[in-house]
């Protein structure tokens, strides 16, 4: 007993060893301050509520609950979690129950002369029942590294789901903005088409009366036809945006599109300012960065798994049970049988396969490290660029609103003068057409600002934080 205990001590000591590097997050040199003017207040998690549009909020929440993309991401998490649990199970002993019943005959002309043994019957039944156990000692930390890798891959799947949440919420919001913009453009196109038709009619009448040129009449007719084409395109744009929303939400078109087409509303109003948070927090907040980091952690653990194959693998095994030729004898003490021992395997000659696998694992980790650095650079560039575009869109929106205000005053004045008989119908319809064009530009500017805000929220990694870390 003491001898066996002494033999087990070296194995227990070796079990504490783990080959391969331990993962440490790479240092990233990044400035603390944003290049673009930004507020360092916390980033809004449910940022779509900042637009103050109940239907947008409802669509985003519906998409998060039923989108196939999110369900797929959740299924990958469940798969990765099961793989991690399987890896953890590999650290524990394997115990199996056995039961074997057979009828046997030993050759009388074989190696053992059983026919010459008095009273020995070469034909006999045999019943065996018991338990077998085996346990590979984690001598070099192979099983531990396998668990580390599986745990990291589980986190990869989780961060991939959160990245899908960020992308989905942004895409739903962007498409909803497109839908409302298309509706406004459709209303404007109808106004333009009506004004263009009246202008064409007036120009033709003036040409026939000799008060205008035929060139002006032809140009007005061409403008009317172009307005009709724009109207048809606007109607198609509304329907197309509604169908895209149905696809993003994960709902059959017949369950969503009719209600959307029956609804009306302006382009969602973007907030005047957006909090960007602390710049270095992007490393924690952006799901694509965290996913790349966990892929690096998994690749680092894979180096240890590969290096463990350089060394012998020790396995302890045992078996205990009952063996007899009849059921009556099976439960007696004389039927007890057991086995205890162990073995090791050591790939001495593998023609460089193990070392090639180690080099491959090292290269995979180097690639993962490069991907992690690229994700950080991409996140910083996208965030700064989105902040710049949001600021520019705000200025553009101010100019478009000012232009619309002037055109609205001009049309009001033109209508007043027309009512007084001081101007003709042609001048009134021209003022109406200019107002419609200004309304189109204003709607585009508001949609541009809303789109820039959505892009900034996405670049900052907003959306998943409200779920909590445990999901």
Report on the structure:
It is built from 11 helices and 4 strands, in the order αααββαααααβαβαα. It is an alpha+beta fold and 471 residues long. α3 (68-89) packs antiparallel against α4 (142-209), α4 packs antiparallel against α5 and α10 (353-419) packs antiparallel against α11 (425-459). The longest helix is centred in the middle third of the chain and has 68 residues, at 142-209. 62% of the residues lie in helices and 10% in strands. It has helices at residues 2-14, 54-66, 68-89, 142-209, 214-249, 253-262, 282-285, 287-308, 327-330, 353-419, 425-459; strands at 94-105, 123-136, 313-324, 336-345. It folds into 2 domains: 18-91 and 139-311 and 355-467, Outer membrane efflux proteins (OEP), CATH 1.20.1600.10; 93-137 and 313-345, Outer membrane efflux proteins (OEP). Mean pLDDT is 87; it is low at 9-15.
Outline of this structure?
The protein has eleven helices and four strands; from the N terminus they run H-H-H-E-E-H-H-H-H-H-E-H-E-H-H. The chain has 471 residues and is α+β, with helices and mostly antiparallel strands.
Name a few traits of the molecule.
single chain; 471 residues; alpha+beta; Outer membrane efflux proteins (OEP); 2 domains; four-stranded antiparallel sheet; 4 strands; 62% helix; elongated
């Amino acid at each position: 007993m003491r001898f066996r205990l002494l033999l087990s001590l070296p194995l227990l000591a070796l079990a504490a060893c783990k080959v391969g590097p331990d993962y440490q997050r790479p240092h990233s040199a990044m400035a603390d301050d944003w290049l673009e003017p930004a507020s360092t207040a916390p980033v809004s998690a449910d940022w779509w509520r900042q637009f103050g549009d109940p239907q947008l909020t409802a669509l985003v929440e519906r998409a998060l609950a039923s989108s196939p993309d999110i369900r797929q991401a959740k299924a990958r998490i469940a798969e990765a979690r099961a793989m991690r649990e399987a890896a953890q199970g590999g650290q524990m002993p394997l115990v199996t129950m056995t039961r074997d019943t057979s009828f046997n005959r030993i050759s009388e002309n074989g190696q053992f002369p059983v026919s010459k043994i008095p009273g020995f019957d070469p034909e006999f039944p045999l019943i065996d029942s018991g338990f077998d156990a085996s346990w590979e000692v984690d001598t070099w930390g192979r099983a531990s590294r396998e668990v580390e890798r599986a745990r990291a891959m589980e986190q990869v799947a989780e961060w991939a789901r959160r990245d899908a949440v960020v992308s989905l919420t942004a895409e739903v919001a962007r498409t909803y903005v497109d839908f409302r913009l298309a509706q406004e453009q459709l209303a404007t196109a109808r106004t333009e088409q009506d004004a263009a038709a009246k202008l064409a009619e007036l120009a033709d009448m003036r040409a026939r009366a000799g008060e205008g040129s035929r060139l002006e009449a032809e140009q007005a007719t061409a403008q009317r036809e172009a307005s009709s084409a724009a109207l048809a395109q606007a109607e198609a744009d509304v329907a197309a945006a509604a169908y895209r929303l149905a696809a993003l939400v994960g709902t059959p078109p017949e369950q969503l599109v009719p209600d959307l087409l029956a609804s009306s509303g302006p382009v969602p109003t973007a907030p005047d300012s957006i909090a960007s948070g602390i710049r270095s927090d992007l490393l924690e907040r952006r799901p694509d960065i965290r996913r790349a980091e966990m892929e690096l952690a998994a690749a680092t653990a894979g180096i240890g798994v590969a290096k463990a194959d350089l060394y012998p693998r020790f396995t302890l095994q045992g078996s205990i049970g009952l063996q007899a030729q009849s059921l009556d004898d099976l439960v007696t003490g004389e039927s007890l049988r057991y086995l205890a021992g162990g073995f090791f395997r050591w790939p001495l000659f593998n023609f460089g396969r193990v070392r090639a696998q180690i080099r491959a694992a090292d290269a995979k980790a180097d690639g993962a490290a490069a991907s992690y650095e690229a994700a950080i650079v991409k996140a910083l560039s996208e965030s700064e660029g989105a902040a710049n575009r949001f600021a520019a869109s705000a200025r553009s929106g101010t100019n478009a609103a000012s232009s619309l205000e002037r055109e609205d005053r001009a049309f009001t004045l033109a209508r007043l003068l027309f009512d007084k008989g001081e101007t003709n119908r042609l001048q009134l319809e021209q003022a109406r057409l200019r107002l419609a064009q200004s309304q189109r530009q204003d709607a585009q500017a508001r949609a541009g600002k809303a789109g820039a805000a959505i892009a900034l929220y996405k670049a900052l990694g907003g959306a998943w934080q409200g779920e909590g870390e445990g999901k």
